[in-house]
Amino acid sequence: MTTPNKTPPGADPKQLERTGTVREIGSQAVWSLSSCKPGFGVDQLRDDNLETYWQSDGSQPHLVNIQFRRKTTVKTLCIYADYKSDESYTPSKISVRVGNNFHNLQEIRQLELVHPCCCKW
C-alpha cells in the first residue's frame, strides 16, 4: 500500500483504499514464499479472506518475498495477524527488508508481536 500521509496503526486498509487515502499496489509485484503447504500459498495470503491464510511448510525463517518489476516506493505495509485464530502459526517477529535485489536487502524495520488479536499493521 502507498499513502501520502502516515497511516494510523490498526486502520482498516480496505476503508482507506475506498476513501483514496491509500492505493493497493501488491498486484504490481511478484510474490513468492520460502515454503507453503498445498492450498495455503500466495493465493490464500492475498485473497482478502480472513478465513484463508498462508501456512509455511519448512524450517525457519519463513519468508514472504514481494518483488516489484521497477523501483517502487512503499509507504505503508498492512499485515493481518490473529493469535486466537492460528496460534501456532502467528509470527512473533516480522522483519521488513528492502533492496535492489535479494542479495542486498537491508532491514529497515523489525516488529515483535505478542499475541496479536485481529491486528493490522
Automatic annotation (TrEMBL):
<protein>
    <recommendedName>
        <fullName>Anaphase-promoting complex subunit 10</fullName>
    </recommendedName>
</protein>
<keyword id="KW-0131">Cell cycle</keyword>
<dbReference type="GO" id="GO:0051301">
    <property type="term" value="P:cell division"/>
</dbReference>
<comment type="similarity">
    <text>Belongs to the APC10 family.</text>
</comment>
<dbReference type="InterPro" id="IPR008979">
    <property type="entry name" value="Galactose-bd-like_sf"/>
</dbReference>
<keyword id="KW-0833">Ubl conjugation pathway</keyword>
<dbReference type="GO" id="GO:0031145">
    <property type="term" value="P:anaphase-promoting complex-dependent catabolic process"/>
</dbReference>
<dbReference type="InterPro" id="IPR004939">
    <property type="entry name" value="APC_su10/DOC_dom"/>
</dbReference>
<feature type="domain" description="DOC">
    <location>
        <begin position="1"/>
        <end position="121"/>
    </location>
</feature>
<dbReference type="InterPro" id="IPR016901">
    <property type="entry name" value="APC10/Doc1"/>
</dbReference>
<keyword id="KW-0498">Mitosis</keyword>
<dbReference type="Pfam" id="PF03256">
    <property type="entry name" value="ANAPC10"/>
</dbReference>
<keyword id="KW-0132">Cell division</keyword>
<dbReference type="GO" id="GO:0005680">
    <property type="term" value="C:anaphase-promoting complex"/>
</dbReference>
<dbReference type="GO" id="GO:0070979">
    <property type="term" value="P:protein K11-linked ubiquitination"/>
</dbReference>
